[in-house]
């Protein structure tokens, strides 16, 4: 069964314990990250005492507050479930005072974990597969027995070493009738790919985790979906990773989607180059760069530049595709120069504008895929 606990359950655990002992409670994963806490400011932080408790399997007592190391006095108890340490429960307070709640906290945590297992087992194969896919793309730790069980239920007896995550992101404006047909078409497409797991991930994406070579051997399946459903989908194929590192493949699939040209539907992370670098730029730097370069341009200007750069700045070809005279194109390029201070016809200025357009697309503003309505 799952080694990790969904955030909602971890918060339920700390809130329940808080109601019993009236001390601040932390739910800490085996890597020392605070997943849930009755002190919201601590969620997401690193807990050195919790990490040590998970590593040693022993209860760690902190006698005094240590602000420099962000430690507070209290106890940190490892929680063993199905023979493995799945979490650490930290209770803040005078160690001698909070120690009396230790056994109660451990028993209550194990009870809630057991209830989650029973709930999952009652839901059946489809729900367990959905849970597994979501856990893998979040990067959750998973109990080996649960992982093998769900793979076997899906007919995967000998898991491949390398997998890919493919994200089918629903475009804004896709409503119930089209979505129902889309879901049926994707189920049919997924059934053609052996060694695959799939799930709908609320609010706006179908996610497929499949044997890595399937995206090459069965590329025609993906192309067929892209051609048929281009008005409703944007598809990103992630990098090759082990099954337990599909959260990285998932992130790369999202980068592939964000890097798609406005008129494109299917993208592979491995085909990217500049976009890989641009996807790592901090948001504040992106905002400053876009404000500096693109602020004076409207949607028509940006579409013209996209076409101009995609044609390697060829004037006649661009003018022909835009159904305008070459002189009109020259005029509009001059207008862009006047509005931004950058002349698209000059190499260096063109690089600045080209990079800004790519950053804008990666940020998602070029073709935002907002939550689809499932009614």
- Average predicted local confidence, pLDDT: 86
Shape: globular
**E-strand count:** 10
Structural class, judged by helices and strands?
A: alpha+beta
Which strand-content bin applies to the residues? 15-25%
Instruction: Output the helix-strand order.
Output: HEEHEEEHHHHEHEEHHEHEHHHHHH
List unreliable stretches of 5+ residues.
1-5, 365-375
If strands are numbered along the chain, what order do they take across the biggest sheet?
2-1-5-4-3
Largest sheet: 5 strands, antiparallel
The count of helical stretches stands at 16
Rg of Cα set: 26 Å
Distance between the termini: 32 Å
The portion of residues assigned to helices is 40-55%
Task: Please sum up the structure shown.
This protein is of the alpha+beta class and 375 residues long.
Ordered list of secondary-structure elements with their pairings:
Layout (H helix, E strand, L loop, with lengths): L6 H15 L3 E4 L5 E4 L10 H9 L3 E3 L11 E8 L2 E9 L2 H4 L3 H22 L1 H14 L5 H10 L9 E8 L5 H15 L5 E6 L3 E7 L2 H4 L1 H10 L4 E5 L8 H13 L7 E3 L5 H5 L4 H11 L5 H12 L4 H8 L3 H15 L6 H17 L12
Parallel strand pairs: 9-10
Antiparallel strand pairs: 1-2, 1-5, 3-4, 4-5, 6-8, 6-9, 7-8
Helix pairs in contact: 5-6, 12-16, 13-16, 14-15
Textual characterization of the structure:
A hairpin with a 5-residue loop joins β1 (25-28) and β2 (34-37). The chain has 375 residues and is of the alpha+beta class. It is built from 16 helices and ten strands. The chain has helices spanning 7-21, 48-56, 95-98, 102-123, 125-138, 144-153, 176-190, 214-217, 219-228, 246-258, 274-278, 283-293, 299-310, 315-322, 326-340, 347-363; strands at residues 25-28, 34-37, 60-62, 74-81, 84-92, 163-170, 196-201, 205-211, 233-237, 266-268. Mean pLDDT is 86; it is low at 1-5 and 365-375. The longest helix has 22 residues, at 102-123. The strands form two sheets. The protein has a five-stranded antiparallel sheet with strand order 2-1-5-4-3, sandwiched between helices. A five-stranded mixed sheet has the order 7-8-6-9-10, sandwiched between helices. 49% of the residues lie in helices and 15% in strands. α12 (283-293) packs across α16 and α13 packs across α16 (347-363).
């Amino acid at each position: 069964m799952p080694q990790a606990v969904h955030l909602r359950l971890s918060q339920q655990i700390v809130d329940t314990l808080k109601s019993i002992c009236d001390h601040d409670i932390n739910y800490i994963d085996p890597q020392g990250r605070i997943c849930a806490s009755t002190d919201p400011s601590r969620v997401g932080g690193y807990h050195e005492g919790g990490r040590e408790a998970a590593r040693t399997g022993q209860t760690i007592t902190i006698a005094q507050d240590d602000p420099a190391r962000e430690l507070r006095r209290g106890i940190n108890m490892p929680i063993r479930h199905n023979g493995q340490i799945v979490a650490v429960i930290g209770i803040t307070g005078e160690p001698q005072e909070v120690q009396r709640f230790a056994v109660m906290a451990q028993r209550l945590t194990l009870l809630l974990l057991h209830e989650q297992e029973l709930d999952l087992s009652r839901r059946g194969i489809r729900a367990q597969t959905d849970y597994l896919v979501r856990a893998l793309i979040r990067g959750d730790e998973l109990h080996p027995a649960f992982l093998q069980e769900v793979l076997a239920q899906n007919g995967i007896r000998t898991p491949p070493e390398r997998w890919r995550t493919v994200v089918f992101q629903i475009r804004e404006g896709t409503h119930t009738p089209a979505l129902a047909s889309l879901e049926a078409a994707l189920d049919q497409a997924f059934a053609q790919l052996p060694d695959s797991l799939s799930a709908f991930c609320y609010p706006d994406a179908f996610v497929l985790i499949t044997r890595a070579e399937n995206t090459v051997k069965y590329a025609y399946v993906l192309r067929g979906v892209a051609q048929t459903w281009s008005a409703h989908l944007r598809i990103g194929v992630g990098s090759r990773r082990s099954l337990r590192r599909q959260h990285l493949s998932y992130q790369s699939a999202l980068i592939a989607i964000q890097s798609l040209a406005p008129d494109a539907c299917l993208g592979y992370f491995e085909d990217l180059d500049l976009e890989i670098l641009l996807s790592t730029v901090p948001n504040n730097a992106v905002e400053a760069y876009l404000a500096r370069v693109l602020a004076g341009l409207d949607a028509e200007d940006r579409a013209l530049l996209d076409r101009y750069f995609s044609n390697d700045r060829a004037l006649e070809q661009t003018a022909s595709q835009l159904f305008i005279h070459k002189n009109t194109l020259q005029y509009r390029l001059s207008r862009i120069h006047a509005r931004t201070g950058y002349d698209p016809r000059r190499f260096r200025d063109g690089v600045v504008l080209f990079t800004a357009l790519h950053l804008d697309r990666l940020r998602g503003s070029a073709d935002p895929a907002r939550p689809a309505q499932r009614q």
